[in-house]
Amino acid sequence: MAAVATVGTPALTICLYLIISKGFPPQQDTGFILGQARAATDILFEAMSAKMQALDAIAAADPDVDNAAYWINPSPSAGVG
Q1: How far apart are CA 29 and CA 76, in angstroms?
Q2: How many C-beta atoms lie closer than 10 Å to residue 49's C-beta?
Q3: What is d(CA 78, CA 41) in angstroms, rounded to the nearest whole number?
Q4: What is the reported pTM?
Q5: Quick check: 81 pLDDT over 50?
Q6: DSSP structure class, residue 72
Q7: d(CA 52, CA 35)
Q8: If you placed Cys at 43, which of 39, 53, 62, 70 could pair as Cys (CB 3.0 to 4.6 Å)?
Q9: CB within 8 Å of 75: residues ≥ 6 apart
Q10: Residue by residue, what is the 3-state secondary structure of 9-69?
């Protein structure tokens, strides 16, 4: 039984290497970039909204940017749970 496992494991590894596609990492740029903006914990929603809109305007001014989206959470853990 140990001999079967000893021979079978490398053989199976080689077979899987040949069969499974080599698509990771992607062969072409997907164009997706994720970023994060931080501010003081006591910043008002309106002030943070203005800062995010300014960042959005910078991204939108780049001709290579197709779309940009943002959201504002009141705290780092607001989206958890």
Answers
A1: 30
A2: 13
A3: 13
A4: 0.52
A5: no
A6: -
A7: 12
A8: 39
A9: 41
A10: HHHHHHHHHHHCCCCCCCCCCCCCCCCCCCCCCCCCHHHHHHHHHHHHHHHHHCCCCCCCC
Q: Which two tokens stand for residue 61?
A: 């001014």
Tens of pLDDT, residue by residue over 3-22, are 888 999 999 999 998 888 77
Structure confidence by residue, pLDDT tens digits, 19-65: 887 766 666 767 788 888 888 888 888 999 999 999 989 988 988 88
Residue 12: what pLDDT? 93
C-alpha angle 4/8/12, rounded to 5°?
165
Q: In this structure, what token pair is assigned to residue 34?
A: 């994720």
Nearest to 73 by CA among 36, 29, 20, 32: 36
Residues in the chain: 81
CA-to-CA distance for 47 and 33, rounded, in angstroms?
A: 24
